[in-house]
Write a structure and sequence with these properties.
It is built from 8 helices and no strands. It is mostly helical. Helix 6 packs across helix 7. The N and C termini lie far apart (about 50 Å).
Length: about 220
Amino acid sequence: MNTVASAAPYHHGDLRRALLDSATAILTETGRWDFSLREVARRAGVSHAASYRHFTDKEALIAAVALTGYETLHTRMTTAIDAATGEVGTLRAIGQAYIGFGVANPALYRLMFGQALPSIEGLPPAVLAVLTEARAVLRGVILAGARAGAFAIDPEDEQEVSVAVVTAWSLVHGFTLLTIDRVVDREVRPQVIDALAARVAERLIIGLLPTQGRK
């Protein structure tokens, strides 16, 4: 997969942003990412050839759309951290921020974590960097909690920390997808999804607490 081409001045104004917005609009409206550069350019009101000034091919455009998603997710998680108090409260906050982002942007979320992008080894450097940063947020919170004694995890045991990170990520990712697919609706009313998300995060936290800290 080719990397995202760098932006350059263009008479259209911010053509790169216009193309990204058009691609994101198509993705949001249809849930599909098999659109062509020609379709995206037409929606942006520019020629097909003009799109190549910023994206070498459709895969590069898709990578750029995913990149904006990872950046937004990273921002929401770090903002949640800034507003939270304590290790437990911080983990709860980023879990809910993650779920909230996915549920609010279902098509984009599927693009970011589905089959549209290649494996880690094939990701453009810019996409890999911001994805790594987003993952590091969760790891940092769990590691900080372990070092503070809030979580029953040995902070010096790399494998134990990794298992906790994957467990936490699996839980919020699975819940997000179940909600997007409306499977959760079969268990609870859609109006209480936010409350259920909070309870799910709470279950995760209970599993990480030292024995004496559990209810």
